[in-house]
Design brief:
globular, six-stranded antiparallel β-sheet, single chain, five-stranded antiparallel β-sheet, alpha+beta
Length: 248
């Protein structure tokens, strides 16, 4: 795969949150700089925020429990927000949701911003609410999110277990956006992470131009359902349902 130089990149420290609109045709690359990072992420259609990421449909139609290269991330309208075109980590969770304020307080102690400033212990649920509020969204708009760089597997007893040993410094995932998307994200701990200290793992965030989707595209052809998902998305874009061009 040809890599274009990044148009924008930054490093996001652990325990932070952010949001932005990402245009179709953009490649977002996330890199776990130290090993052990978690990036919670949600997706919405910026022109109709009632359309948002649907984790159950994403897993069901691709016959998978984890997310990795080849998988597409679906909206609840059967369209594809983005596709995983690169992945050196190999396993990303989308069933465990967010860590909450009470869990953080119990596991790592409640440390407020007023007292600890940047050393406070933020939680993923509240982090999403802060970012969602910037777009008129609230608690009822939060859906099951992706947790990039976190492996959670089911044991024989049916319980879900967080595998901290799977983390690798330098692991990255490349996410190609197939439609204009509002992205909410945070770098708060995974809800099943039992690290002794509150994890503050930094993530490199890089945006560049993605290669066009070819007829033999790996993600598009990974499952028959993905081909139909791409067709639905292309129809939506063809109808002019895109963000207006910015004016200088």
């Amino acid at each position: 795969m040809t890599h274009h130089s990044a148009h924008y990149e930054t490093v996001i420290e652990g325990g932070k949150h952010w949001s932005l609109n990402i245009r179709a045709g953009t490649l977002l690359r996330l890199t776990d700089l130290e090993g052990g990072a978690n990036v919670g992420m949600l997706f919405y259609n910026p022109l109709n925020t009632l359309e948002r990421y649907n984790a159950p449909d994403t897993l069901k139609c691709q016959h998978t429990f984890k997310l990795t290269r080849g998988h597409c991330l679906y909206s609840d309208m059967g369209r594809i927000f983005c596709s995983i075109v690169e992945d050196t980590h190999g396993w990303h969770d989308t069933v465990c949701g967010n860590v909450t304020r009470s869990v953080v307080a119990e596991r790592w102690g409640a440390k407020s911003y007023q007292e600890y400033r940047n050393g406070w212990t933020q939680n993923g649920h509240d982090a999403f609410l802060v970012e969602a509020g910037k777009y008129g969204l609230g608690r009822r708009d939060l859906a099951a999110n992706v947790n990039w760089f976190s492996k959670v597997a089911a044991a024989d007893d049916g319980g879900l277990h967080f595998d901290a040993s799977f983390a690798r410094a330098g692991a990255h995932v490349g996410i190609r956006f197939e439609m204009d998307t509002l992205v909410l994200l945070h770098t708060c701990p995974h809800p099943l992470d039992t690290a002794v200290s509150y994890p503050r793992k930094s993530v490199k965030f890089s945006l560049s131009e993605a290669e066009p989707v070819a007829a033999d595209d790996f993600c598009k052809n990974f499952r028959p359902e993905n081909g139909r998902g791409f067709a639905n998305t292309e129809l939506y874009r063809f109808c002019g349902c895109a963000l207006p061009e910015s004016k200088s």
